[in-house]
Amino acid sequence: MAAGAPGPPSAAVLTLPAADGPADPEAAKAQIEKNWTAFFDPKTPTDKKAELLQHGDLLKALLDGFSTGAEAAKASVVVTGVTFTSPTEAEVTYDLKVGDETVLPGSKGTVVLEDGVWKVSLKTLCSLVELSGAEAPPLLC
Predict the structure, then answer these.
(1) Quick check: helix, strand or coil at residue 70?
(2) For the whole model, what pTM was predicted?
(3) N or C, fewer C-beta in 10 Å, the chain?
């Protein structure tokens, strides 16, 4: 090859998503863990939680109601696993804690990629509302 002649094209020029996951699974997993944890953090403001929930802009009133109470104020999650099911969806395994006690170990939920952000799925929120004994608006779930 002559000096100054271009070399072979780089294989990293075009990155396509894998059939069963995103193009950069490690970055996606990090965002999922961060967003999932923030969504369940009682200190996260409702407006921010809405940004982390699928169709969250329509559900702020539900999020406000879901965040009240002594138990909610002590709730947290620890993500223990993320499994991609498509380039835009994943299953999340997590432990739901209230204070120092794990109340729902090995729980499962899903996330969806919406507007470039990995968000807690509406399906997951509906399941948690059902578990809490509260009634979700019928058009949601």
Answers:
(1) helix
(2) 0.78
(3) N
pLDDT of residue 134: 65
Encode 43-69: b = buried (16+ Cβ within 10 Å), e = exposed.
Answer: ebebebbbbbbbebeebeebbeebbee
Report residue 106 as tokens: 């090995």
CATH class of the domain defined by 25-132: alpha beta
Is-contact 54 120, C-beta < 8 A? yes
Distance CA 107, CA 34 (A): 17
User: Contacts for 131-136 with beta carbons within 8 Å, 24 or more apart?
Assistant: 131/104, 132/66, 134/65, 134/66, 136/62
Domain ranges, ordered by start, for the chain: 25-132
